[in-house]
Design goal:
With 403 residues, this protein is an alpha+beta fold. It folds into 2 domains: 173 residues, no CATH class; 192 residues, Nucleotidyltransferase, domain 5, CATH 3.30.420. It has a 7-stranded antiparallel beta sheet. The longest helix has 35 residues. It is built from 9 helices and 14 strands. Helix 5 packs across helix 8. The chain binds zinc ion. Zinc ion (ZN) binds next to loops.
Length: 403
C-alpha cells in the first residue's frame, strides 16, 4: 500500500529560483493541456492522451513561445499533463454520475497567484543521494530535514512551496500492510463540533476524542492576523506581507492537528476491528453553512481519511454508513425518530421509551447499529446478540430529508 511521507527541504536561493521556474512551467503545461482538452471537447474531436502530451510538451518545446519548457525536467511536465487529465476526468465522471460523492467543479486553471505551488516527479526525475541529499533533475542536490526515516524507496516525489515560503518534499512510498491480530470490538464514530468525535463500541464502552488541545491560543493568534490581513488593500504590498504572516501560524495549526489526528486514528484502529462512520458528503449536504465552516475547521474529512489509511495498513475495516441517517435525532434504544433536535440540546429523553440520551453518544450508537445492520445485509457478517434491542438501520427512515 502507498503512503506519503513529507519532509522540509532547504533549497539554496539559486535552487529556489530554478524551482520557481519549474513550478511555472508545470503550471503552464497543466493549463495548456486543460485548454486543449476543452477545445477538443467543444469541437467534438477525440484526442488521445499521448496526442495531448505531444502537443503541450514535445511540440510546444520547439516553438519560441514555449521554448523555455526545455529548461526544466520533462518528467515534471509529463506529470503535470497527467494531473490535468485526472482533474478533467474526475470532473466528467462526477457530472455524468459515474463518480460518487461530492460533485466536482470544472477544473480550475492554475494561476501564478496561487500561494501553494507544486510539481511532481517520478523515479527518473529524482534520486536520494548517499550524503542524505535529494537530487532533483535540473535543480541539483537539495538539503532535506529527515524528521523520520523513509520506510522504503519512494516511487515519486512532489516538491511543494507552501504559502509561508517553506519548501517540502512529499514522497510516495510503498509500505507493507502489517495486519494486527483480529479483535471482536466494533465502534461507531460520531464526529462533532464540541469534541472531535464520540465513540460507541460494541462492548458498551463510550470514549470521547476531544479536539486537539493547545490549539486555542494559536487559533486566536491566527484569527487576529486574518483580521489584520482583511483590512489591507487587495493586491497591496502590505496585504502580501500580511498573507505571509498568516501562513506561519496557519501551518503550525495544520501540522498540530494532523499529528493529533494520526495519534487518535491509530488508537481507534488498534482497538476496533470495524469502524463505522457516517458519509460526510451526505452530512455536509444537509447541514447549514455555518456548520459547514465548523466542519472544515474541525477537519473531520482529514480525520476520517487517516482512519481509512491506518485501517488499510493494519487490516481493519472502515465501513461508511451509506444511507442518510438522522443519527442525532434517532433513539438508539427503540428507533423512535424526533422531528427536530436543536444543536444546543445536549441531552434528551426519548418520548417513546423514556431513555435519557447524551446527544453525541446516542448518535454514535445509532451509527454503530446501522453500520452493523448494513454489513450483515450485505455480506452475512454475524452480528453478536449485544446489538439486539438497538436501533435497526431501517427504522431510521429511508428517504433523505433536509434537516
Ligand atoms: Zn426510545
Amino acid at each position: 500500500m502507498q503512503m506519503r511521507h513529507r519532509y522540509r527541504i532547504e533549497p539554496t536561493p539559486a535552487q529556489q529560483a530554478t524551482l520557481a521556474r519549474v513550478f511555472g512551467c508545470a503550471r503552464v503545461v497543466f493549463n495548456d493541456a486543460l485548454r486543449v482538452r476543452e477545445q477538443a471537447y467543444r469541437a467534438g474531436v477525440k484526442l488521445s492522451d499521448s496526442e495531448i502530451q505531444r502537443r503541450v510538451v514535445t511540440t510546444a518545446k520547439t516553438t519560441t513561445r514555449r521554448a523555455w519548457l526545455c529548461e526544466v525536467p520533462s518528467v515534471a511536465l509529463v506529470q503535470s499533463v497527467n494531473d490535468s487529465r485526472r482533474a478533467w476526468r474526475n470532473f466528467f465522471e462526477s457530472v455524468s454520475g459515474k463518480r460518487k460523492g461530492r460533485k466536482m467543479g470544472r477544473p480550475r486553471f492554475k494561476s501564478r497567484k496561487d500561494h501553494r505551488q507544486s510539481f511532481r516527479l517520478t523515479r527518473n526525475g529524482f534520486s536520494l543521494r548517499s550524503n542524505g541529499r535529494l537530487f532533483v533533475a535540473k535543480v541539483g542536490e537539495v538539503g532535506v530535514r529527515w524528521s523520520r526515516e523513509l520506510p522504503s524507496e519512494p516511487s515519486s516525489v512532489t516538491i511543494i512551496r507552501e504559502p509561508d515560503g517553506r519548501y517540502y518534499a512529499s514522497f510516495v512510498v510503498d509500505v507493507p500492510a502489517s495486519p494486527l491480530p483480529p479483535v471482536e470490538r466494533e465502534a461507531g464514530v460520531d464526529v462533532g463540533i464540541a469534541r472531535l468525535a464520540t465513540i460507541a463500541a460494541t462492548d458498551g464502552v463510550r470514549s470521547d476524542i476531544d479536539n486537539p488541545k493547545g490549539l486555542g491560543r494559536k487559533l486566536r493568534k491566527l484569527a487576529q492576523l486574518e483580521r489584520e490581513k482583511s483590512r489591507r488593500q487587495k493586491g497591496s504590498a502590505n496585504r502580501d506581507k500580511s498573507r505571509r504572516k498568516v501562513a506561519v501560524p496557519h501551518n503550525e495549526v495544520a501540522r498540530a492537528r494532523r499529528d493529533y489526528h494520526h495519534k487518535q486514528a491509530l488508537a481507534l484502529v488498534r482497538d476496533n476491528q470495524v469502524i463505522h462512520v457516517e458519509d460526510l458528503n451526505i452530512l455536509g449536504m444537509v447541514q447549514n453553512r455555518r456548520l459547514a465552516r465548523a466542519i472544515s475547521d474541525a477537519g473531520w474529512g482529514q480525520f476520517v481519511r487517516i482512519i481509512g489509511e491506518k485501517a488499510d495498513r493494519y487490516g481493519r475495516t472502515v465501513h461508511t454508513v451509506s444511507r442518510w441517517l438522522a443519527s442525532s435525532k434517532t433513539c438508539s434504544g427503540c428507533g423512535h425518530r424526533l422531528d427536530e433536535l436543536p444543536l444546543q440540546v445536549r441531552t434528551w429523553t426519548c418520548p417513546a421509551c423514556r431513555v435519557v440520551h447524551d446527544r453525541d453518544h446516542n448518535a454514535a450508537k445509532v451509527i454503530l447499529a446501522a453500520g452493523r445492520a448494513e454489513r450483515l445485509n450485505a455480506c452475512g457478517v454475524p452480528v453478536s446478540p449485544a446489538t439486539s434491542g438497538q436501533a435497526r438501520g431501517d427504522e431510521a427512515g429511508s428517504t433523505p430529508t433536509a434537516a
